[in-house]
Design a protein that fits this description.
alpha/beta; seven-stranded parallel β-sheet; Rossmann fold; three-stranded mixed β-sheet; 18% strand
């Protein structure tokens, strides 16, 4: 199939391109490069067999979207493009609603006009808010605690309404937990611009000497060691989940909502210890006050992914740390050095 990948030059998008090409699909990438790099696409080409067509465009521009669909016979869309910084979403909620929600509406409208009704959407475990019980199943109550999470939740509802209005739609909503790591080649990985939003790039930047120490936000949660517990998933496992979802949609009508996680939670201190073991580097840290909005624990029940997609995570925490460290030490400044 010919797959349009919005946000394909980003962290998860670039790893998914590798898996799509490996599965024999053709790929067209649509990205505005606001938080990504075209170098990632050049690196994907080195890893993979098969070409990549790239369009620089914005979801908020219907003209940009029309150009892609008019020039290519797209069979399906994997939709990653969107702003994703929780803190920024609190400061600039309208920016997030405009880019994420309205941009997705533009994309879906263009798909309708082009006769394309197969979509894999990049959602997030943030839609569950503060979990009432664990592990999290797909039928758990939702209720995001920040504008970023609410944009994901609103888009999910929009997609369900869309499928309800037209039985031809085939939609997979994939709720990610905490992707980390990098491609084993070390050629592509997470390349945060400015201050990272997540724990793992902070750890790798401390290990490489770019930051003096790590701040651990709170050690008084009701967890194994008082620090926050999350379900970390290798980005390659996550990327393969998208290919499995695409294949499942070939025989599935309607909306399929799936968790992509390992089902195993690790605390911040357990993550630090695992990374120390793999890298041989010290990770100095200091305990600081909790952050507003952080929750104690969050991890998935991944059984529906096994049942519906035939997918399960294959990499463990050691491999996640190993591949993330391999990327960081070979690319201490991310993709910048290649520009």
């Amino acid at each position: 199939m010919k797959i349009l990948v919005t946000g394909g030059a980003g962290y998860i998008g670039s790893h998914t391109l590798v898996e799509l090409l490996r599965a024999g699909h053709q790929v067209v990438v649509f990205d505005n490069l606001s938080n990504s790099s075209v170098v990632a696409l050049e690196r994907v080409a080195k890893i993979s067999v098969g070409g990549i067509t790239f369009f620089k465009g914005d979801l908020c521009s219907p003209a940009d979207l029309h150009q892609v669909f008019s020039q290519h016979a797209i069979d399906a869309v994997i939709h990653f493009a969107g702003l994703k910084a929780v803190g920024e979403s609190v400061e600039k909620p309208l920016l997030y609603y405009l880019n994420n929600v309205a941009g997705t509406a533009n994309l879906c409208q263009t798909m309708v006009e082009a006769g394309v009704r197969m979509l894999v959407f990049s959602s997030s475990a943030t839609v569950y808010g503060d979990p009432r019980s664990l592990p999290l199943r797909e039928d758990a109550p939702t209720g995001a605690t920040n504008p970023y999470g609410r944009t994901k939740l609103f888009i999910e509802e929009m997609l369900r309404d869309l499928a309800g209005s037209d039985a031809a739609w085939r939609i997979a909503i994939l709720r990610y937990f905490n992707p980390i790591g990098a491609h084993p080649s070390g050629l592509i990985g997470e390349n945060p611009r400015g201050i990272p939003n997540n724990l793992f790039p902070f750890i790798t930047q401390v290990a490489i000497g770019q930051r003096p120490s790590l701040s651990v936000f709170g050690n008084d949660y009701p967890t194994v060691d008082g620090t926050g517990v999350r379900d970390y998933i290798h980005v390659v496992d996550l990327a393969r989940g998208h290919v499995c979802a695409l294949e499942r949609l070939a025989t599935y009508a309607g909306v399929l909502t799936i968790n992509l996680g390992t089902g195993q939670g690790y605390s911040v201190l357990q993550m630090i210890q695992a990374f120390r073991h793999v890298s041989g580097r010290d990770i100095p840290y200091q305990i600081v006050a909790r952050r507003a909005g952080d929750i104690a624990s969050c991890y998935a029940d991944p059984s529906l992914a096994r049942q519906e997609l035939g997918w399960q995570a294959e990499y463990g925490l050691e491999e996640m740390c190993r591949d993330g460290w391999n990327w960081q030490r070979h690319n201490p400044k991310g993709y910048v050095e290649s520009n």
